[in-house]
Design a protein that fits this description.
Strands 1, 2, 3, 4, 5 and 6 form a 6-stranded mixed sheet that branches. Helix 2 packs across helix 3 and helix 4 crosses helix 5. The two termini are 36 Å apart. The protein is of the alpha/beta class. The radius of gyration is 23 Å and the shape is globular. Helix content is 36%, strand content 11%. The longest helix is centred in the C-terminal third of the chain and has 17 residues. The chain contains 11 helices and 8 strands.
Length: 365
């Protein structure tokens, strides 16, 4: 789905989170969000009047999209609390005890039971049927996490599925490695380079540039095509932007473990519904609703039950608009250098010898 399908509430939440981080100025942030500075200061003022908890849990009711019901009662009985647990579970059928405990506490309820007690309530209610792909087995691989946001983003397609009216849907997602913040979640109708590059360009305009982008070895970023150079058309474009593209080991999906875990949550909380999806628009709308919950409401155990939006901050690195449209920066060749242009086969000739550069570099000096 296009980026402009994001709701106003979701845009305001992201804007305030990024403004609080202090990594990007008000003027630059307004430019990235496509709003005037007057509107930016209006959103800031409204948030300041309500506060993080004012108007609702999680600091999102100030944006006008939360329930008006009371946040809690100091005299709530255990039976009433159990009913709240079951109601929260009904809102989020794939959440367990820890996430439900965090959710109820963020809504202002007092006397929220321990996560183990909430799990017992769910078990008594027959609500612990399996979701997703089950527990992850311990392996011999080394876990890693970058030290700060935007040092590494992970990007991948989830397995495709058929819709009723629009053929197959190819979910495309991207996460920040440090904060687990979801930077992109789109319902695409194909896996072509042009569409992926356009989606990345929108993400770069909104969030700035990462240092590295981790992908698998499949198209359109895989290294098996384009004349064997190790670069695809998408990789050359990223190279020009100053983003280093790296690839996980073949047949080792655990290299992109955070993205794989995100896909498990997406399947359990969105894609596991029994009714078939009508078209890409319906899938995209569901993705954007869930993305808001995932980034700003859903506590993440690896982040001490904070949502990713409280940890992520946009990158101060900004790309020139011309480069985002596909142009490569001018290479600083020395006057004494001999310059050759790569031909359509990805080769250059020099002193009667042929050198393979890669088809991704064709027509480039």
């Amino acid at each position: 789905m296009p980026w402009k399908s994001l709701s106003c509430e979701a845009m305001r939440e992201e804007f305030i989170e990024f403004l609080k981080s202090g990594s990007v100025s008000m003027s630059e942030l307004c430019r990235r969000f496509g709003i005037s500075r007057k509107t930016g200061y209006k959103w800031k003022r409204r948030y300041g009047e309500c506060g993080r908890a004012g108007g609702g849990a999680g600091g999102v009711e100030w944006s006008g999209d939360r329930s008006r019901r009371p946040r809690g009662c100091p005299h709530r009985s255990s039976a009433e609390m159990e009913a709240e647990v079951l109601a929260a579970r009904a809102e989020h059928p794939a959440w367990g005890g820890r996430k439900l405990k965090h959710l109820l506490e963020s809504r202002g309820y007092r006397g929220v039971p321990a996560a183990s007690t909430i799990t017992s309530i769910l078990r008594r209610g027959g609500l612990l049927e399996s979701h997703g792909s089950g527990p992850v087995r311990a392996g011999s691989y080394q876990r890693f996490e970058r030290e700060a946001p935007n040092e590494l983003w992970q990007m991948d397609f989830k397995g495709e599925f058929r819709t009723q009216r629009a053929g197959y849907c190819y979910p495309l997602g991207m996460l920040d490695d440090h904060s687990r913040y979801n930077l992109m979640l789109e319902a695409r109708g194909d896996q072509r380079t042009h569409g992926v590059r356009a989606s990345l360009g929108e993400a770069f305009r909104r969030y700035g540039l990462p240092r590295q982008l981790l992908c698998d070895n499949g198209p359109p970023w895989g290294t098996s095509a384009e004349g064997g150079s190790g670069y695809t058309e998408l990789g050359v474009w990223l190279l020009g932007l100053g983003v280093d593209i790296i690839h996980g080991r073949a047949y080792h999906p655990q290299t992109q473990g955070k993205q794989e875990r995100f896909h498990r949550s997406l399947k359990a909380e969105v894609l596991s519904r029994p009714a078939p999806w009508e078209d890409l628009r319906e899938v995209g709308e569901a993705f954007q609703q869930w993305r808001r919950v995932y980034n700003h409401q859903r506590g993440h155990e690896a982040l001490q039950m904070r949502p990713p939006g409280e940890v992520y901050a946009p990158s101060p690195r900004r790309a020139r608009e011309g480069l985002l449209e596909g142009a490569l920066p001018e290479m600083p060749y020395h006057e004494a250098d001999t310059v050759r242009t790569v031909n359509a086969l990805g080769r250059v000739m020099y002193k009667n010898r042929t050198y393979m550069i890669g088809r991704a570099f064709q027509k480039k000096p």
